[in-house]
Amino acid sequence: MARPPKKPAVRTDQPATELRIIGGTLRGRKVHFSGLAHIRPMKDRVREAVFNLVGPDVKGKLAIDLFAGTGALGLEAISRGATTAIFVEQHFPSADLVRKNAQELGVAETCQVAAADVFHWARRHLPTSGPPWLVFCSPPYVLYRDRREDMLQLIATVLERAPSDSLIVVEADEQFDFASLPLAERWDVRHYPPAIVGLYRKTDVDRGPT
Question: In the chain, how many domains are there?
Fold first, then answer.
């Protein structure tokens, strides 16, 4: 008796090229990305945990998505009530895809995409007025090793310039020591292996890191 032909193997090594918005008005909508190895989307469970930490405080904020990659964090913030979002991504094709995603989701008018080096952009173009910020700093983990001082200075600059009531979210892995952050004792640090996430809430009494 002839054996039935084998079904072709399902390949599991292909990079995913879609994410979905987890919550808010755009819940379930698709976010496309390139699938390139150097674009590392925050895992869904970590993204959900981050927004659980932030809670309703996302509403009314200006979302700033540094090292935007897919743009999923800033778009999730828009979905959950952020008024506007700025995405900073130096990889031009990825920046173009963030623009496309915003357009397809119908939120292009509330989104600004800067195809720029994050370190340079933050020194010159952080907003000087407007609502409090919700900042996401989720870079390739290797930057915490290869450009450690630049990363610490970037975070310090954001903390110093952010308006009162701003929230700053930093994602890294175990290679980065969160105790080296400015005002380290003020960070709420959570572990979602392999990711580690720190949340800082800036208050009226803050004068920025020293």
Answer: 1
